[in-house]
Amino acid sequence: MDRSGEPFVRLPAIYHTSSNDTYFTVSLDIFGDGSVAGSEFETVESLGEAIENGTIVFEVPDGSRISISDLCSVDKALGITGFVFPDEVIKELDDIVAALSGRPTSLEQCSARYHEYSKSRTAESLEALRTAYARVPRHCRALVLGDMDAKDGPIRRALGLA
């Protein structure tokens, strides 16, 4: 299928083969319909399963063999430590698909719930904020309010987390 001109997000990742314990860098193109190009994974759901079962990883242990696309291979490489947890990447994949398909992302939904809570201060709006905040990937939470000075501090204070 020709997808030229269709918007997508390219996700860099590491593919782990358990058969020879080698890691390969890959680029996965995520489209608004939830499909994935650039690998054997055809959908965001199958990619999520690969993340959960360790086929797609974001960390590489010390001493591993890493193949960097068509550039080179490195034996006994220093480990790569990721800062993103697999379940948080799955949340981010959902946001990528939502953004590409014109639906609100978890950040936009959380921002809306915060502004609703700021106006009403009801228990219901606080609970809606708590639910929306939990859906935002941890590594994206500082971006929810669009204020890089305050980050997500006002939300954390409202939720009793700060």
How would you summarize the topology of this molecule?
Blueprint: E1 8-17, E2 22-31, E3 36-37, H1 44-53, E4 56-57, E5 64-68, E6 72-77, H2 86-100, H3 106-120, H4 123-135, H5 153-158
Parallel strand pairs: 2-5
Antiparallel strand pairs: 1-2, 1-4, 2-3, 5-6
Write up this protein.
- With 162 residues, this protein is an alpha+beta fold.
- Helices cover 36% and strands 22% of the residues.
- Strands 1, 2, 3, 4, 5 and 6 form a six-stranded mixed beta sheet that branches.
- It is globular and about 55 Å long.
- The model has no long low-confidence stretch (mean pLDDT 89).
Roughly how much helix do the residues carry, as a percent range?
25-40%
Average pLDDT, all residues: 89
Number of helices, where a helix is a run of at least 4 consecutive DSSP H or I residues: 5
Order of helices and strands: EEEHEEEHHHH
Per DSSP E runs of 2 or more residues, the count of β-strands stands at 6
What is the rounded distance between the termini? Answer: 49 Å
Number of structural units classed as domains: 2
Structural class: alpha+beta
β-sheet strand percentage: 15-25%
Uncertain regions: pLDDT < 50 for 5+ in a row? none
